[in-house]
Write a structure and sequence with these properties.
It is a single chain. This protein has a six-stranded mixed sheet with strand order 6-9-10-3-11-12, sandwiched between helices. Strands 2-1-4-5 form a four-stranded antiparallel sheet, with helices on one face. By secondary structure, the chain is of the alpha/beta class. The protein has a single domain, classed as Rossmann fold (3-Layer(aba) Sandwich), CATH 3.40.50.300. It has nine helices and 14 strands. Helices cover 32% and strands 29% of the residues. The structure holds adenosine-5'-triphosphate and magnesium ion (MG). Adenosine-5'-triphosphate binds next to helix 1. Magnesium ion binds next to helix 1.
Length: 259
Amino acid sequence: MGEFLQAQHISLYAGTRKLLDDVSLKLAPGEVVALIGPNGAGKSTLLRVLTGYQPPDQGRVLLSGHSLDAWSNEALSRRRAVMRQRGGMAFSWKVEDVIKMGRAPWPAADSAAVVKEVMALTGCDALAGRDFCQLSGGEQQRVQLARALAQLWHRGQPRGWLFLDEPTSALDLYHQQHVLRLLRRLAQMGTLAVCVVVHDLNQAALWADRIVLLHGGRLVAEGTPREVLNEATLQHWYQAELKVFSSPEHPVPQVLLKP
Ligand SMILES: Nc1ncnc2c1ncn2[C@@H]1O[C@H](COP(=O)(O)OP(=O)(O)OP(=O)(O)O)[C@@H](O)[C@H]1O
Ligand SMILES: [Mg+2]
């Protein structure tokens, strides 16, 4: 089928500094992949390359078998959406109009119904009519998520590749759980690939099918949460003192920092 987004031996330089070093990665609809790693590891940079905003210096990114630079902007916008780490907006726009911006690639579709649906899913319906600039950080984050989902909504469900850079960083506990459960459920519908940067390793353990650990621009570990989130790996790459345990109720690794 070739329905993958595939990075092949990606390297990227800034002057003589290597920001990404021979990274290969495959993202398929149906799964949630968590991108983890210390500050400055290259997670946001990798997202820029995977989404086509930054061409790599070496290697290539293929979407459904075709190099990203062979896709038109319009066709690419229908297949992948991005929620950035710093998604600020300087304009005074109503919440529903920000979300509607996500529908730009679908001019002929019935976008009002889609906007309504993604607002309900993300809990943004309670924010209808509000000025985006006046929302709290967490509220803005949920609106940005709704916008990205609206962009990929087609024939009744989200389709394509959704990239999120720390989408829960400003969310309270209820909304962290709500958003991550939602992303998982949408991915499980089978037509959406979710690639999410997170710092909270416990969130990654609970909701990701696969974890990719970056360090110094290199992919240094990859696998299921059980395979990647062990004490030796985490202590080595994060240089933090921690314990990893598994609760009997949810048999996934959970990480506890030592005081
Ligand atoms: N345009 C650039 N020129 C030079 N260095 C850059 C550039 N963009 C990013 N970097 C550097 O590349 C490294 C990776 O940055 P990146 O933003 O990808 O890290 P990150 O893993 O997302 O970190 P964080 O967890 O803090 O968000 C950092 O050291 C950063 O300073
Ligand atoms: Mg980042």
